[in-house]
């Protein structure tokens, strides 16, 4: 491995980190704006133009807040919880192909931190570790509400991960590869997976809502019953970490949705652009297209949040075990039959 | 026909509750979600109801109880005689005052022989009930004429309004007198 590669990757990783942070920050702003607009209000508009500096003000406020620690025997775990949540939210971005390749100074730069063969498995692994952040934090808080939130989060994640995995299997049967880059390249142009796997996409979408703890599946936080759920006892920047991790998670899961089902950086007419305007331009447009798709999904997350009320706990479990899992198994069978029949 | 209680609908909106089985599409829930999403997205583009307060002020009703004003009469003299009735009637005990005697040569400043040297209302205590206005025998305190709200402040001290903020400015009194004539 030559040193140029290491420098290139380091720069790329820092950029991704910064972009993820920025997206998470501005998701909080967007969330408040979208909520306001859907409710006929205008939302934050005092800090900066259109309230654009609001995330900074929020961050500053969280930094300045008093750090409160509950009387818990698990001081260390209380401290570790938000860290785990944040770390797992950030490291998934390593395997996502953000764009095709760029040619800078005669080098071909692949816009992906690392292209491991099992990137999908890696993402699933990391996401399942993510629930530990919530569980550890909720348990170490020494508070009944936090514990309930943590227990709910854990059982919800476990049940929805099954359906999510099964819906992905149908996709894998088509793609034949676990590498996200390979999956993206198969969806060249307009050949997106969502057209072949509409049911799989729907299941994956619903599970993604559950995995990111967003309404209508936000039973782990559930302000009206559990105060704040697992982060009831948290304050100051630890609280900030949890909230930040949540928004980073939303960004990452939107990215995964866009990459797996909506063609990632592919867009119709990309070959024409590549031939006439050069690879670099085509790639840059590709990155922009990917971000448009991601933002559209983030907006969809928010739109749903401010439309649908929260599920009841038994409804949530019913939906997961009795509907989504059988449905995804049927989906796998139908996909198998179609592959046999048409290939 | 005998009208039983079941058939009466005072609001005209009475509906029989139905316990019919949900159809497949209703049970699927997705259709309902999409309908809901369409409703909320319509609101996204709707005109916003917000009034951007400090820049944009809503029209006050003629009887709106806003910031207090200590009135001056047609000759620009303060009406208040520091009788203390407003302080006595105030349920929130927001008003304090200190009376002083009018000196010769101050007749153009104060209408009565006794006047309020210090007159303070603590706006954090005030509940804007308007009882002070009702109690005043000298027509001195009004909440309707300032057409102003008490704005937010960072310090508690700033909410204690003295005579500098409460007494009606002389120019306003002069303008009022001009309008009378
Ligand atoms: S409005 Fe009511 S509460 Fe306020 S100062 Fe007058 S009497 Fe007291
Ligand atoms: S404002 Fe009216 S009631 Fe209050 S002290 Fe002055 S004259 Fe008396």
Largest sheet of chain A: 2 strands, antiparallel
Bound molecules: iron/sulfur cluster
What is the overall shape of chain B? elongated
What is the CATH domain class of the domain at 69-180 in chain B? Alpha Beta
Rounded to an integer, what's the Rg of chain B over CA atoms? 28 Å
Q: Topology as H/E string of chain B? A: HHEHEEHEEHH
Subunit structure (chain A): NDH-1 is composed of 14 different subunits. Subunits NuoA, H, J, K, L, M, N constitute the membrane sector of the complex.
Family (chain A): Belongs to the complex I subunit 1 family.
Enzyme class (chain A): translocase
Protein name (chain A): NADH-quinone oxidoreductase subunit H
Commentary on this structure:
- The complex is a heterodimer of chains A (343) and B (181).
- Chain A has 343 residues and is an all-alpha fold.
- Chain A has one domain (3-43, 64-342).
- Chain A has helices at residues 3-38, 54-64, 75-91, 119-140, 144-175, 180-186, 198-211, 223-226, 236-261, 270-277, 279-305, 313-342, and strands at residues 101-104, 107-110.
- In chain A, strands 1-2 form a two-stranded antiparallel ribbon.
- In chain A, a hairpin with a 2-residue loop joins strand 1 and strand 2.
- Chain A is globular, with a radius of gyration of 21 Å.
- The two termini of chain A are 40 Å apart.
- The model of chain A has no long low-confidence stretch (mean pLDDT 84).
- Chain B is of the alpha+beta class and 181 residues long.
- Chain B has a domain at 69-180: 2-Layer Sandwich (Alpha-Beta Plaits), CATH 3.30.70.
- In chain B, 25% of the residues lie in helices and 12% in strands.
- In chain B, strands 2-3-5 form a three-stranded antiparallel beta sheet. In chain B, strands 1-4 form a two-stranded antiparallel ribbon.
- The longest helix of chain B has 15 residues, at 30-44.
- The radius of gyration of chain B is 28 Å and the shape is elongated.
- The termini of chain B are far apart.
- The mean pLDDT of chain B is 85.
- The A-B interface holds A 34, 37-42, 45, 303-304, 306-308 and B 33, 36-37, 39-41, 43-44, 46-50, 52.
- Bound molecules: iron/sulfur cluster (SF4) (2 copies).
- One iron/sulfur cluster is lined by residues 80-86, 97, 135-136, 138, 140-141 of chain B.
- One iron/sulfur cluster is lined by residues 89-92, 94-95, 121, 126-132 of chain B.
């Amino acid at each position: 491995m030559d040193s140029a590669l290491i420098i290139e990757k380091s720069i790329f990783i820092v950029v991704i980190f910064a972009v993820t942070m920025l997206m998470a920050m501005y998701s909080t702003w967007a969330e408040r704006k979208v909520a306001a607009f859907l409710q006929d209000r205008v939302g934050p508009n005092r800090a900066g133009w259109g309230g654009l500096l609001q995330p900074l003000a929020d961050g500053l406020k969280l930094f300045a807040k008093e750090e409160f620690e509950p009387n818990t025997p698990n001081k260390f775990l209380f401290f570790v919880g938000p860290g785990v949540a944040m770390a797992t939210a950030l490291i998934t971005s390593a395997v996502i192909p953000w764009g095709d390749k760029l040619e800078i100074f005669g080098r071909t730069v692949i816009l992906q931190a690392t292209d491991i063969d099992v990137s999908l498995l890696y993402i699933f692994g990391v996401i399942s570790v993510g629930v530990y952040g919530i569980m550890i934090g909720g348990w170490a808080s020494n508070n009944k509400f936090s514990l309930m939130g943590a227990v709910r989060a854990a059982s919800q994640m476990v049940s929805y991960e099954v359906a999510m995995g099964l819906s992905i299997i149908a996709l894998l049967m088509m793609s034949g590869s676990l590498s996200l880059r390979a999956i993206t390249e198969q969806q060249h142009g307009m050949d997106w997976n969502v057209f072949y796997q509409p049911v799989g996409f729907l299941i994956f979408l619903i599970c993604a809502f559950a995995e990111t703890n967003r309404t209508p599946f936000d039973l782990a936080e559930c302000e009206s019953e559990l105060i704040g759920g697992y982060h009831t006892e948290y304050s100051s920047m630890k609280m900030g970490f949890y909230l930040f991790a949540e928004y980073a998670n939303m960004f990452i899961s939107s990215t995964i949705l866009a990459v797996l089902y909506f063609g990632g950086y592919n867009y119709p007419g990309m070959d024409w652009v590549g031939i006439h305007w050069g690879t670099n331009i085509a790639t840059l447009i590709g990155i922009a297209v990917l971000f448009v798709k991601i933002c559209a999904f983030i907006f969809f997350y928010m739109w749903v949040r401010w439309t649908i009320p929260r599920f009841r706990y038994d409804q949530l479990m019913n939906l997961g075990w009795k509907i989504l899992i059988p449905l995804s198994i049927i989906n796998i069978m139908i996909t198998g039959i179609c592959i046999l029949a048409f290939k | 026909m005998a009208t039983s209680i079941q058939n009466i609908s005072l609001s005209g909106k009475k509906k029989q509750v139905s316990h019919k089985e949900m159809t497949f599409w209703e049970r699927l829930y997705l259709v309902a979600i999409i309908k809901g999403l369409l409703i909320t997205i319509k609101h996204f583009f709707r005109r916003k109801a917000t009034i951007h307060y400090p820049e944009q002020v809503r029209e006050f009703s003629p009887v709106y109880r806003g910031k207090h004003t200590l009135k001056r009469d047609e000759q620009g003299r303060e009406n208040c005689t520091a009788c203390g009735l407003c302080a006595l009637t105030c349920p929130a005990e927001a008003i304090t005052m200190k009376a002083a005697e009018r000196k010769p040569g101050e007749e153009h400043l104060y209408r009565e022989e006794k006047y309020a040297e210090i007159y303070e209302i603590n706006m954090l205590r005030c509940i804007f009930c308007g009882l002070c206005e009702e109690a005043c025998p000298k027509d001195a305190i009004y909440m309707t004429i300032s057409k102003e709200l008490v704005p937010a402040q960072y310090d508690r001290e700033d909410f204690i309004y003295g005579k500098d903020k409460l007494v009606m400015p002389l120019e306003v009194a002069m303008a009022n007198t001009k309008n009378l004539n």
